[in-house]
Design a protein that fits this description.
Elements: H1 6-13, H2 21-31, H3 35-40, H4 50-63, H5 68-72, E1 74-77, E2 80-83, H6 96-104, E3 112-116, H7 122-130, E4 135-140, H8 143-155, E5 162-165, E6 177-182, H9 215-223, E7 228-237, H10 243-252, E8 256-262, E9 268-274
Parallel strand pairs: 3-4, 3-6, 4-5, 6-7
Antiparallel strand pairs: 1-2, 7-9, 8-9
């Protein structure tokens, strides 16, 4: 039987994936090699071993819908690699807007910031890395998620970031912050998108919240004032059709300057406001 080259191996398995380019990514990661190495050895015979078996297993799992990030155990966010697992939401490019907005705020040092529902820790740890003089606290209800966040904290050398377990503000007592950020669950329960793509494999508690998707966001807006300093800011990521509702809710709760910001796709993705105190 003729031994396959790496080129032939890829050609055989690319058609099985919705995005054929993922086959190459999975192969180089399974081999522990770079793309440059693969291109230089495209026509070399495949050396069968644990690495090839790992690639074939990943192809099977990806063809069945498993997210690439979960297969590889990591995802890039804001130029840094974060460990991920099925215990946490996969960090997405649109969430970088939330980080951008937080970094653009004029906050007087020493600034304290709180990330609610931190998951992998991507938001809190990115803010800590970009603003070393800020004091970051992050909470999550999931102990498994906090283990992932702690691993990322250690990997990035950000030991000063405080990780606490609790529902929303439960773990922080009466402490107040200059900034509160959150990418909470905001998909409506029963939304058909929950049965499609990567969402099928991500933790339900990190995705959906109530019949309209706003149950947890409503709690955030209601409880945040007790934990914001005068002049502090609240920034919340939300769904593509929820911006107007968030602005109304923020204004009704006593926040000032409620507004929304669009992501690179032109979708109003983040809303926020200032707490006048």
């Amino acid at each position: 039987m003729t031994q396959l080259s790496y080129r032939q191996l890829l050609d055989r398995h690319r058609p099985r994936l919705d995005d054929p380019s993922e086959a190459e990514l999975l192969l180089v990661r399974a081999l522990g090699k770079s793309r440059a190495w693969l291109y230089a050895h495209y026509d070399d015979p495949v050396t069968h071993g644990p690495e090839t078996e790992r690639f074939l297993a990943w192809i099977e799992q990806r063809a069945a819908g498993q997210p690439v990030a979960y297969l590889l155990g990591e995802r890039e966010f804001y130029g840094r690699s974060f460990q991920v697992s099925p215990a946490v939401l996969i960090p997405r490019p649109e969430t970088e807007l939330l980080v951008d907005l937080a970094l653009e705020l004029s906050l007087s040092p020493p600034c304290s910031a709180l990330d609610i529902g931190t998951g992998s820790g991507a938001i809190a740890l990115t803010l800590a890395a970009e603003r070393p003089d800020w004091h970051l606290t992050a909470t999550d209800l999931s102990e498994a998620a906090l283990r992932i966040a702690a691993g990322n904290r250690d990997q990035l050398g950000l030991s000063k970031v405080e990780l606490l377990r609790g529902d929303l503000f439960e773990a922080i007592g009466d402490r107040t912050f200059d900034l509160i950020v959150s990418n909470p669950p905001y998909i409506a329960e029963g939304d058909p998108h929950l049965d499609r793509g990567d969402l099928r494999f991500e933790p339900a508690m990190a995705l959906s919240s109530g019949q309209d998707g706003l149950a947890l966001i409503d709690r955030l807006i209601e409880e945040a004032p007790s934990h914001l300093k005068r002049g502090g800011f609240l920034l919340i990521e939300h769904g593509h059709d929820q911006a107007e509702q968030l602005r109304r809710r923020l204004a009704a709760a006593g926040f000032a300057q409620a507004q929304s910001w669009r992501d690179l796709a032109g979708i109003e993705r983040v809303s926020g406001a200032c707490w006048p105190g």
